[in-house]
Specification:
Layout (H helix, E strand, L loop, with lengths): L7 E9 L2 E9 L4 E9 L8 H30 L23
Antiparallel strand pairs: 1-2, 2-3
Length: 101
């Protein structure tokens, strides 16, 4: 079965007084999700805005990944294949992708 689709995403970064906040919005066509992440510079560390951007974005994307995982598990269960506990693999037919470990 061949399938191609496009998901649209936007990443918004806000920095103020050593704190970076990131909002990631994802539109899959059937779901609209928003992930959030924050990073704060330790007062004793040198303020490097790129590091705050990277950490906050990583945390926002991780939040988004957890939301997608919950939706996938719900959809898997809805398809009649009960998922294993805390896994995106309901049975041996699903690919074992290192990104989901």
């Amino acid at each position: 079965m061949s399938h191609t689709t496009e998901w649209k995403s936007r990443v918004y970064l806000f920095e103020e007084d050593g704190t970076t906040k990131v909002r990631v919005e994802l539109d899959t066509g059937s779901n609209r999700l928003t992930g959030h992440g924050t990073a704060r510079c330790n007062p004793t560390d040198k303020d490097v805005p790129e590091i705050g951007d990277e950490l906050a974005a990583a945390r926002a994307l991780e939040d988004l990944a957890h939301q997608l995982g919950r939706i996938a598990r719900r959809d898997i269960a809805g398809s009649g294949a009960p998922p294993q506990k805390d896994s995106l693999k309901p049975y041996g037919g699903w690919l074992d992708d290192a990104a989901f470990r």
